[in-house]
From TrEMBL:
Keywords recorded for this protein, A-Z: DNA-binding, Transcription, Transcription regulation
PROSITE patterns (alphabetical): HTH_LACI_2
Protein name: LacI family transcriptional regulator
Domain HTH lacI-type: 2-56
PANTHER family reported in the protein's UniProt record: HTH-TYPE TRANSCRIPTIONAL REGULATOR ASCG (PTHR30146:SF67), LACI-RELATED TRANSCRIPTIONAL REPRESSOR (PTHR30146)
Originating organism: Vibrio casei
Amino acid sequence: MATITDVSRLANVSKATVSRVLSGSRGVREDSRLAVLKAAEELNYSPNIAAQNLATQSTNYVGVVLNTADAASLNSYLPLISRKLKSMKKLMLVQFAESDHEQQSALMELHSQCEAVILINGTINTSAFERVLHMDGVMSDAHASVGFDYQFAAESACRYLLGKGHRKIALLVDDLEQGSCQDLLNGYKNALQNSSLPYDRRLILEAKHQLEQSLLGLINSFTQYTAIVVKRDSYAAEAMRIMREFNIQVPKEVSVISLEDSPLAQQLNPTLTCISHSSEQLADYCMDNLQTLLERSIQTMKSSPLISGRLVSRESVSDL
């Protein structure tokens, strides 16, 4: 049985183009459209039922691609999205992915089956696709992306620590090549600059695929620090674990603050001080954009404001 890959190869176009042609989307060159239709006919290619429904704009499926690098999203986002989609009488198709390649593949598959796709914590640019919404990920299109104000969150966390007397603050992010992590770094730098403190590159850590190594590198270095700001609660948990092994007391010797506030934050010992963001509000913004997208009125879609967090003080930060 022929696949969408076979059609794209024979027509010499991308899978995304094949998907757009078979779904009846606009913006495809006439020669490409004819090539796809001819290839599909020669290969006797029949899209699955979901894709056929899409061509008549009658499918009830909305795809969700979840980046499994952030397991906390399973608990915070999926139930919210599922509940809201049910109220819209839509069905949810979910795929889990981690690497950029896996995200691209999952997006490609769901794009051919669903009216729209929501990419949660995505790290890939999807400007080549139509009907894709970003949720707490790459802000590739202001009209199709909703997310948190990470610059404000990082600056707020640092100002809170500075108010507690901390002057040597480390920052742990995912990957500095990501836009949200650059926002974190900018907020961090702003806080230091406003307090006339120097910026020390040695205090900037990247988790990527080597979280433990990054933390061990900081602990084993001669770089002085009294506090760490982390993007995710899971990073805080790992930092606390490693510090415990090195007999470093939190918060007596090192304070830790997170920019997430998932259920994990209250399960740690000590409980985690956070800049908390509303997942419910983020889901509401995303569903508003989805509704506009499904009504085929993307031109009227309003840019969603970035969601600011609020400080939740617990036990992981102390005064110097």
